[in-house]
Design goal:
By secondary structure, the protein is α+β, with helices and mostly antiparallel strands. It has three domains: 99 residues, Tetratricopeptide repeat domain (Serine Threonine Protein Phosphatase 5, Tetratricopeptide repeat, Alpha Horseshoe), CATH 1.25.40; 75 residues; 61 residues, SH3 Domains (SH3 type barrels, Roll). It has eight helices and seven strands; from the N terminus they run H-H-H-H-H-H-H-H-E-E-E-E-E-E-E. The strands form two sheets. A five-stranded antiparallel beta sheet has the order 6-5-4-1-7. Strands 2-3 form a two-stranded antiparallel ribbon. A hairpin with a 5-residue loop joins strand 5 and strand 6. Helix 3 runs parallel beside helix 5 and helix 7 packs antiparallel against helix 8. The longest helix is centred in the C-terminal third of the chain and has 34 residues. The chain is globular and about 75 Å long. It starts with a helix and ends with a strand.
């Protein structure tokens, strides 16, 4: 029993110490950033990242720091990572847009259909994890409403609970569908950022194949396939080609 209590005590103290260390590092990094000591700020933020912590604020601050250091590719990379965790944050979107305006490649997106616009504006505005949580909450609500319908004595209340339970059931189906399609989209649309200053995109996954176009640091692509050390990528304008794995970094 004493060993168990000691182990629990060790875990609590260890977790508290870990949190305090991270908090101290984060504060120090923010102080360095405010003073314009961006290299020192970057080192402190990287120390936190090395602890395998995922935080939208951490990624956002890393993006800002890299931008101040005129490193476009990592700035865009971390703004994108921040948005992945918090897709509705306007500050993240704004700073990403500012960083993207400094890139060399200006790629026009293929016009989206009405359904694609709906998907992007409403469904993919939230992560598939969020939709999964929503479906769980909707399921609990459905059970409560159905039980209320079952045990209600008044006919008006029964009718109301029945209608609400049907609506909540339909919402369960919708939210589950959105969660599934969101997970499938992320699985088959792996975004990445070009990190090389100049990357030559080829028509086949070999070094001797023909160059079809060039990309520069900071450009966002979608990874479609991998063959050895080559990745098949797609641009927003629909262009497709093969690029060396070392030229980019997947999000």
């Amino acid at each position: 029993m004493k060993r168990i209590l000691f182990f629990v005590y060790f875990l609590v103290i260890g977790s508290s110490s870990f949190a305090q260390t991270t908090e101290v590092l984060f504060k120090a990094a923010n102080d360095f950033y405010k003073k314009g000591a961006y290299e020192n700020a970057l080192k402190s933020y990287q120390q936190i990242e090395a602890k395998q912590l995922e935080s939208a604020d951490l990624y956002y601050n890393l993006g800002n720091t890299y931008y101040k250091l005129n490193q476009v590719a990592p700035a865009i990379y971390y703004f994108e990572k921040a948005l992945k965790l918090d897709p509705t944050n306007e500050d993240f979107k704004n700073n990403l847009s500012i960083a993207q305006r400094t890139t060399i490649d200006k790629i026009d997106s293929i016009p989206k259909t009405f359904l694609q616009k709906i998907d992007e504006s409403y469904i993919r505005k939230f992560s598939f994890e969020t939709w999964a949580y929503v479906s769980i909450v909707a399921s609990i609500l459905f059970v409560l409403l159905f039980l209320s319908y079952y045990f209600a004595f008044h006919s008006t209340l029964k009718r109301l609970y029945f209608i609400l339970s049907i609506l909540s059931f339909l919402f369960i189906i919708l939210s589950f569908t959105f969660a599934y399609t969101g997970a499938d989209y992320e699985k088959n649309h792996q975004p990445a950022i070009i990190f090389s200053q100049l990357a030559r995109v080829k028509n086949a996954p070999t070094l001797n194949s023909t160059d079809v176009f060039e990309l520069h640091e900071g450009t966002k692509v979608i990874i479609l396939e991998q063959v050895d050390d080559w990745l098949k990528i797609k641009l927003a304008d629909g262009k497709i080609g093969w690029i060396a794995k070392t030229d980019l970094k997947a999000l």
